[in-house]
Specification:
The protein is an alpha/beta fold and 213 residues long. α2 crosses α3.
């Protein structure tokens, strides 16, 4: 399999790969052996040409008139996304959002393992989320990240604390960060960060809704 430098692959492409993987997992579970680019496209609500273009970035897959072998393509896409083996994840902030993220069922068996949550509040430190994930004191962050070989950190703390949490995660050896605080912390080269501002998403949706009224 020929693979492009991941830094040259547009983020929109990686997002579509995630959609393809979900579809392929469902098809495999249903016992399907092959699927066409149109079949994938219809399930993802995309254009078949877009599916073929995305997959061709990483090598030649499928056969004309036959399509793609579902199990083989699922393995390839999972490998491309780096979820062919589990990545360990910690969540900093054990409030409502942090707890909801920890217990999100989509993470289970999807290439991610939630190791622990961290907080500073006495009333939550030492407890567990509804799904059984332990909540440690934030002072333990570096030790547990290094001990558990954590690759990804999720930041679910108030905006004033986010930059400091991101710095600690980076210093601990975390390579990827998903930040839910409404700020955009700086990170050094070699660290991947995704900033998810839920209010911005709602405002964008509200803007488009105005055009439908």
């Amino acid at each position: 399999m020929e693979r492009d430098d991941t830094h040259r692959v547009p983020e929109a492409t990686t997002r579509r790969l995630s959609l393809y993987l979900r579809v392929l997992i469902d098809l495999e579970a249903a016992g399907e052996k092959t699927v066409s680019s149109r079949g994938i496209a219809d399930l993802c609500r995309l254009n078949p040409a877009q599916v073929r273009k995305d997959l061709s970035r990483f090598g030649g897959f499928g056969q004309r008139g036959v399509g793609y072998e579902v199990s083989e393509l699922r393995t390839v896409v999972a490998t491309l996304l780096g979820v062919d083996s589990e990545s360990r994840v910690v969540i900093v902030g054990a409030g409502n959002l942090g707890q909801a993220l920890a217990d999100y069922p989509g993470f289970h068996g999807g290439g991610f393992e939630i190791v622990a949550l961290f907080d500073v509040r006495d009333e939550v430190v030492g407890t567990r989320s509804r799904g059984g994930h332990p909540v440690h004191h934030a002072e333990e962050l570096e030790r547990i990240v290094q001990r558990e070989d954590v690759r990804i950190g999720m930041v679910a703390v108030p905006a004033p604390q986010a930059a400091g949490v991101v710095r600690r995660l980076v210093a601990s050896g975390v390579r990827g960060i998903v930040n839910f605080a409404p700020v955009r912390p700086d990170v050094p080269d070699g660290i991947a960060i995704r900033n998810v501002d839920l209010k911005v998403e709602l405002e964008s949706l509200s803007f488009f809704l105005r055009g439908l009224e």
